[in-house]
Design brief:
This protein is of the alpha+beta class. Helix content is 18%, strand content 41%. Strand 2 and strand 3 form a beta hairpin. It is globular and about 55 Å long.
C-alpha cells in the first residue's frame, strides 16, 4: 500500500486539464469546470467504491466520504473486504451521481487510495465527517485510525484524482479532467 501522501490544504497543485469528448456530448455542450465537479464531490452524500480482489474480481460497495485537501476520503474497518483488497491493490474508482437517465450529473474519480495516519489530519477529517453527516458519524482519533466506541476502529484513506470523468444528462456531455 502506498505511503501516506503529504498534507496540503491547497488541493491539486494546478487546475486539471478539462477535455470535452464530442463523441458523447451534445453539439452545444462545453467542458464542465473542475470547480463545479469539486462542489458536486463535496456535497454528495453517497459514493460507490470499486476495488479489486486478490483474484482480480471487482468489488463494489456504497459508502460515505468527505472531500478535503484536494482528495476524496473514506474509511473502512480493517477486516472489511475493501480494506483487504486495498492491501494488495490500492487503485480504486469512486463514483457518485444520480440514477436517472435524462437529468443530473455523474462523476467518476480514478486514483490510488493512500492511508491517512497523521493525528492532526485525522482530527480534521473526523470533524469534516461529523459536520457533513451528523453526530451519528462522530469519530475519535486513535493510533493512526478513527475510533468509534460502538463500531471499533476504521482505517482512513485519501484518493487524489488521477483522472476524473463527468457525465451530464438531459443535455449530454462527457468531460474528462486530467491531472498532472
Amino acid at each position: 500500500m502506498p505511503d501516506e501522501e503529504p498534507h496540503t490544504d491547497e488541493g491539486p497543485r494546478e487546475e486539471p486539464r478539462a477535455e470535452l469528448d464530442p463523441r458523447y456530448s451534445d453539439e452545444r455542450a462545453t467542458a464542465v469546470p473542475w470547480r463545479e465537479a469539486v462542489t458536486r464531490l463535496a456535497t454528495a452524500e453517497l459514493y460507490w467504491l470499486t476495488t479489486v480482489r486478490p483474484d482480480a474480481r471487482p468489488h463494489v460497495t456504497p459508502l460515505i466520504g468527505v472531500w478535503a485537501d484536494g482528495a476524496l476520503h473514506f474509511c473502512t474497518g480493517p477486516d472489511e473486504r475493501k480494506a483487504k483488497n486495498l492491501r494488495g491493490n490500492a487503485h480504486v474508482v469512486l463514483t457518485t451521481g444520480t440514477n436517472t437517465l435524462h437529468e443530473g450529473f455523474d462523476l467518476v474519480v480514478e486514483g490510488v487510495a493512500a492511508r491517512v495516519t497523521d493525528p492532526g489530519r485525522l482530527r480534521r477529517l473526523a470533524a469534516a465527517w461529523e459536520a457533513k453527516y451528523g453526530a451519528e458519524w462522530h469519530f475519535e482519533v486513535g493510533d493512526g485510525v478513527f475510533v468509534n466506541p460502538d463500531a471499533g476502529e476504521a482505517l482512513v484513506f485519501s484518493v487524489r484524482p488521477g483522472t476524473a470523468f463527468g457525465f451530464g444528462k438531459g443535455g449530454y456531455s462527457q468531460t474528462r479532467w486530467l491531472f498532472s
